From TrEMBL:
<protein>
    <recommendedName>
        <fullName>Retrotransposon gag domain-containing protein</fullName>
    </recommendedName>
</protein>
<feature type="domain" description="Retrotransposon gag">
    <location>
        <begin position="2"/>
        <end position="60"/>
    </location>
</feature>
<dbReference type="Pfam" id="PF03732">
    <property type="entry name" value="Retrotrans_gag"/>
</dbReference>
<dbReference type="InterPro" id="IPR005162">
    <property type="entry name" value="Retrotrans_gag_dom"/>
</dbReference>
C-alpha cells in the first residue's frame, strides 16, 4: 500500500514487539507510549492477549507486582477486558500521583489554596480509584471465603442404633433375645 508501506508496518510491529519500559518513565507514560505504537499501526495483527502480554512483560518488576496484586494473583490469568481495566485504573492513579509530584516541585510550596481546583479533583479521583481497587479486592476475598465453606445439600440425620436381631432401638450386644 502506498500510504502505509510494508516497511513502516514492519518497523512499528518491531517497536510493539520489542517494547520496553524506560527506566525513568512512569507507568502512565509507558502505557500511553505503548498505545501510541498500537494506534500508529492499526493493522499490526497482534491479538489483545498478545498486546497485554507484551506490555506486562516489558514492565519493571514493581509494576508487574502491582498489577499481580490488583489482579489477586497472576495478572495475565485474567480475561483481556479485566486486564485492560486494571491497567487503565493503575495508569490514572499513577498519572495523578505524578501530576501531584510535578505540581509540588513546580510550586515549591506545601499544599495551599493557591493550587488549581483540578489538582484537588485529581487527588480525589486518585483516591476513588484506589478505594475501588481495594473494595474489589475485598469483595473478591469475601466471595472466595464464602465459596470455600461447604453447605450441606441435604439435612443431616442422627444415626439411630437398630438391633439386627429384633429390630428394636438398641445395639446387637444389648439385645435380650441373644
Amino acid at each position: 500500500n502506498q500510504f502505509f508501506p510494508p516497511s513502516k508496518t514492519a518497523y512499528l510491529q518491531n517497536e510493539i514487539t520489542n517494547f520496553l519500559h524506560k527506566p525513568n518513565e512512569t507507568f502512565n507514560e509507558a502505557w500511553e507510549r505503548f498505545k501510541y505504537f498500537l494506534r500508529q499501526c492499526p493493522h499490526h495483527g497482534f491479538s489483545e492477549l498478545h498486546q497485554l502480554d507484551t506490555f506486562y512483560n516489558a514492565l519493571n518488576l514493581n509494576d508487574q507486582d502491582a498489577l499481580d496484586s490488583v489482579a489477586g494473583g497472576n495478572f495475565l490469568d485474567k480475561i483481556s477486558r479485566e486486564c485492560l481495566s486494571i491497567i487503565e485504573s493503575k495508569s490514572k492513579v499513577r498519572y495523578s500521583r505524578s501530576q501531584t509530584t510535578n505540581l509540588r516541585a513546580y510550586t515549591n510550596a506545601p499544599l495551599s489554596s493557591s493550587l488549581p481546583s483540578n489538582y484537588f479533583q485529581q487527588i480525589a479521583a486518585s483516591l476513588e480509584d484506589k478505594l475501588d481497587i481495594r473494595m474489589n479486592r475485598f469483595e473478591k476475598s469475601l466471595n472466595d471465603m464464602k465459596n470455600s465453606f461447604v453447605t450441606p445439600t441435604a439435612p443431616i440425620k442422627a444415626v439411630e442404633e437398630v438391633c439386627v436381631t429384633c429390630g428394636a432401638n438398641h445395639s446387637y450386644n444389648q439385645c435380650p433375645l441373644t
